[in-house]
Design goal:
The complex is a heterodimer of chains A (about 500) and B (about 325). Helix content of chain A is about 75%, strand content about 0%. Chain A contains 23 helices and no strands. With about 500 residues, chain A is mainly alpha-helical. Chain A has one domain: MetI-like fold, CATH 1.10.3720. Chain A is globular. Chain B is an alpha/beta fold and about 325 residues long. Chain B has 2 domains: about 160 residues, 3-Layer(aba) Sandwich (D-Maltodextrin-Binding Protein, domain 2); about 150 residues, Periplasmic binding protein-like II (D-Maltodextrin-Binding Protein, domain 2, 3-Layer(aba) Sandwich), CATH 3.40.190. Chain B has 12 helices and 10 strands. In chain B, β1, α2 and β2 form a beta-alpha-beta unit. Chain B is globular. The chains are: A mainly alpha (about 500), B alpha/beta (about 325).
Chain lengths: ~500, ~325
């Protein structure tokens, strides 16, 4: 069916607002970098050091992304499409690492293994913390994929493996590609893990520049290079994206694909997933526990812990709500009115995602002080900072859900005389609601873990679990910090669990 | 109450006047500073809105905020950060009678900030791995072959860069460059901060490390013991060696609060006997005000033979950073 290209002025206007928020940090960087002057830029950028940093940063992003793709897709396939024992448990375990901040995981590994540092150490920690970004969307896509194509492939004599690589992987490509992009950008922005295991990436260099002589200009010039690297990654991803047709289920009940019998590989596969979960979660849990037992420092009174918890929940809620409100129009625009303009806007919203939190924080300090003083050091400026940082997480979820909703339903509603807002309220929104829920859960738990921007933008006097954790670890009071870390992980695992449930794994029928 | 009458009204936030409230940006840890601020409020009735953060990021924040900063005072972990803010002309001069409490060597010559506590650079060592007799006489000995692979350093740390600046001031660029190159060539154990270095020395994983003295007190507190019960011991470099640099944590007052009596009272309080005692006992630092005893596990400040370096010269950081970057010790 050929749809008339509808112009969507409302969506477009709102999307431009969204992109403007995402570009606040970039605007700030541009101004500050320009102020630095050409000589300073050249002195900072065109050096062997910068080239080395760029190569190492991109290398780390490539290694972690590839590892997450393999780990995420294979565990999703094992959990969704095979007769693996304990599938539901493994599904939850594969999502839970999202709840562990990389700085906690890296610290745990570093204090458990002597000499745990360098490129491969960083790659290991980042992979173990980020593969859920690939696992979750891939699992959801595997559940929703139409099994008919695979059945045809098998009936035409293709082996199980060739069917997997030739048909199944292609079907879920948009899902794992979107997840992998998030992983790549996350690696570019990560500071926690790389600083603790000492791998010199751009983000670490930016932080070091701040610490070394409070060199704001040097730090910001380096951040601008990071934005350029991000654009390269985005351009690469956009160029390799295939413009395949989208298949939507219309009518009938959803049919589950037949589960592959693993046979003798059943238990080894389960053992492998257990090992991954042990590395991703067990090391951190044991190390935190030991710290708690060894130390005598104690956290503040329960009232203080409860206040930090309440603040974390409230700030993350505000951040998630604002981020979703901003992401929704752009996500809908990308799904409903695709085209070069929508693609451009969508990509622009990703540009700030790889910037270190301290840069996002400073850019919003500058924005707040000069343009939005009444908002300065209030929850809402911090929420805006979270939005600038985490829009892509929300966008990926909304776009994915909106793309799966059959467009024909909206056309029918329009043809029956509903206005655009009526269609939005009664048809579109309910259809993308699961995507909004997933995006909100992901943004929420990411806000909970965020530290550098939170420190710079929080209302004065407001402590969160992440800031308390930081406060105590800076004075070696690890035992006092451990309960905050445990609470942070525990509270974050609720949205992580919701995300798992949303994929449908937990309720998927167990047909063989 | 005369509060606020002295200041220009448009610069004076309403809050600073009537309800006795000041805003302090603290680059020092909340767990250390908060109890002290509570005592201050109890004694003076002046409420403190405290904002905690990383000293370097906070200096960046103040520079972004400029004239519109809500802060009245900046309590920083490091003299370098105070210098960076002072350089932008954001600090007011601290009144003479307050500044006079602090010995000249521990405050800015311009009186734009004053030191509140002092900390000494030390070599922490594990006696199982290094006999006391074998300890180096000078920090420069650490580049010798016998120390290969044995020295823990945290080159991204602000106190390390202050130390390198001190080498430049005392011995010149060449010597600093030579030292950094020698350190880098000697397979140093680079760590993210002083805390991890101390822990590894204490556990016998690293033989010696360059840190600040008070970390030993922090680790002892966390382990529920006293510093002398820990395996790790402190070595103060003798004879005015640069390795024994004494640096300060200090406070500066933002220009808009220049005339604010509550802010003045706050700075005065930080230099009071009470507060100085608190720092000695709780944060294990040296008091800068005469007549207050230092922590028990370190020799008193006047017995240290600190190098003859003017802290005001330590704000010339750019060349230091260039040297540290060049050495390859940091990214």
């Amino acid at each position: 069916m050929i749809r008339k290209r509808t112009r969507r002025p409302l969506l477009l206007t709102l999307s431009v607002v969204t992109v403007a928020v995402a570009l606040v940090p970039v605007a700030y960087l541009t101004i500050r970098t320009a102020e630095a002057g050409w000589a300073r830029i050249a002195q900072e950028v065109f050096t062997v050091r910068t080239a080395r940093l760029a190569v190492r940063t991109l290398g780390l992003a490539a290694v972690v992304t590839a590892a997450c793709a393999v780990l995420g897709v294979s565990s999703a396939f094992l959990v969704v499409r095979t007769d693996l024992p304990g599938r539901r448990l493994f599904a939850v375990l594969a999502a839970l690492p999202l709840a562990v901040p990389t700085y906690i995981a890296a610290f745990a590994w570093r204090s458990s293994i002597d000499g745990f540092e360098g490129f491969w150490a960083a790659a290991l920690v980042l992979t173990l913390c980020s593969y859920p970004y690939v696992f979750l969307p891939t699992a959801a896509a595997l559940i929703n994929a139409d099994p008919a194509q695979e059945e045809v492939s098998r009936s035409l004599g293709r082996s199980a493996w060739r069917t997997f690589t030739g048909v199944t992987l292609r079907q879920v490509r948009p899902a794992y590609a979107a997840g992998s992009l998030l992983v790549a950008l996350y690696v570019l922005s990560d500071f926690g893990a790389v600083s603790i295991v000492r791998t010199d990436t751009f983000t670490r260099a930016v932080f070091v520049a701040f610490d070394l002589g409070f060199d704001r200009t040097g730090a910001l010039v380096l951040s601008t290079v990071l934005v350029v690297l991000t654009m390269l990654v985005l351009a690469g991803e956009t160029a390799t994206r295939r413009r395949g047709a989208r298949y939507a289920h219309l009518g009938g009940t959803r049919r589950a694909a037949a589960r592959l019998r693993l046979g003798r590989a059943r238990w080894p596969a389960a053992a492998a997933l257990t090992a991954v979960a042990g590395l991703a979660l067990g090391v951190t849990a044991v190390s935190l526990g030991l710290r708690m037992v060894q130390g005598v420092s104690r956290p503040g009174a329960w009232a203080e812990v409860a206040a930090a918890m309440g603040n974390s929940l409230w700030l993350s809620f505000a951040g998630a709500a604002l981020t979703m409100a901003l992401a929704l129009p752009l996500g809908l625009l990308t799904a409903k009115a695709p085209g070069p303009l929508a693609t451009l806007l969508d990509r622009l919203a990703y540009v700030s995602h790889a910037l270190p939190g301290v840069v996002i924080g400073l850019s919003l300090v500058s924005f707040g002080v000069t343009l939005a003083y009444p908002l300065y050091q209030t929850t809402w400026l911090l929420a805006l900072g979270y939005a600038a940082l985490f829009l892509p997480l929300a966008l990926a979820a909304v776009t994915g859900a909106a793309a799966q909703a059959p467009p024909v339903l909206e056309d029918v509603a329009r043809s029956l005389g509903r206005g655009p807002l009526g269609v939005l309220r009664t048809v579109t929104l309910p259809l993308v609601l699961p995507g909004i829920g997933a995006g909100a859960a992901l943004v929420f738990l990411t806000c909970m873990k965020e530290l550098p921007a939170t420190l710079l933008l929080r209302p004065t006097g407001v402590d969160t679990l992440a800031t308390e954790l930081w406060t105590h670890t800076t004075v070696a009071a690890y035992a006092a910090a451990a309960p905050y870390a445990a609470l942070l992980v525990l509270l974050s695992s609720v949205p992580a669990w919701l995300l798992t449930a949303r994929t449908g794994i937990l309720t998927a029928e167990t047909s063989r | 109450m005369l509060a606020g009458c002295g200041g220009t009204p448009e610069n004076e936030p309403a809050a600073a006047g009537a309800d006795k409230k000041i805003t302090v940006y603290s680059g020092r840890s909340e767990s250390l500073v908060k109890p002290l601020l509570e005592r201050f409020t109890q004694e003076t009735g002046i409420a403190v809105e405290a904002r905690y953060g990383n000293t370097a990021a906070m200096a960046g924040q103040l520079l972004e905020e400029g004239d519109r900063s809500p802060a009245d005072a900046f309590f920083a972990q490091d003299a370098g950060a105070l210098g960076a803010v002072a350089k932008k002309g954001m600090f007011a001069t601290i009144p003479d009678d307050v500044a006079a409490k602090v010995p000249e060597i521990y405050r800015a010559g311009s009186k734009e900030w004053v030191g509140v506590t002092a900390r000494s650079r030390v070599l922490v060592y594990n006696p199982d791995l290094v006999a006391e007799a074998d300890l180096p006489k000078s920090v420069f000995d650490l580049t010798k072959p016998e120390w290969k692979g044995k020295v823990g350093v945290a080159p991204t740390n602000a106190s390390f860069q202050a130390f390198v600046t001190a080498i430049r001031v005392q011995h010149g660029e060449e010597k600093a460059k030579e030292f950094l190159a020698g350190l880098q060539a000697n397979d140093p154990q680079i760590r993210e901060g002083n805390g991890p270095i101390l822990e590894e020395v204490n556990e016998g994983k690293v033989a010696v490390g360059l840190i600040n003295h008070y970390y030993l007190g922090e680790l002892a507190a966390e382990r529920g013991t006293t510093p002398d019960q820990l395996k790790a011991k402190l070595h103060f470099f003798p004879d005015g060696d640069t390795g024994a640099l004494v640096n300060v944590a200090g406070v500066g007052v933002l220009k808009k609060a220049a005339e604010n009596p509550h802010v003045r009272e706050f700075v005065t309080y930080l230099l009071s006997e009470d507060a100085q005692k608190y720092f000695a006992e709780e944060t294990n630092e040296y008091p800068v005000v005469a007549g207050v005893d230092p922590p028990a596990y370190v020799p008193p400040l006047d017995q240290l033979t600190a190098p003859d370096v003017d802290l005001n010269d330590l704000d010339e950081l750019e060349a230091t950073i260039a040297l540290i970057k060049e050495s390859g010790l940091v990214p």
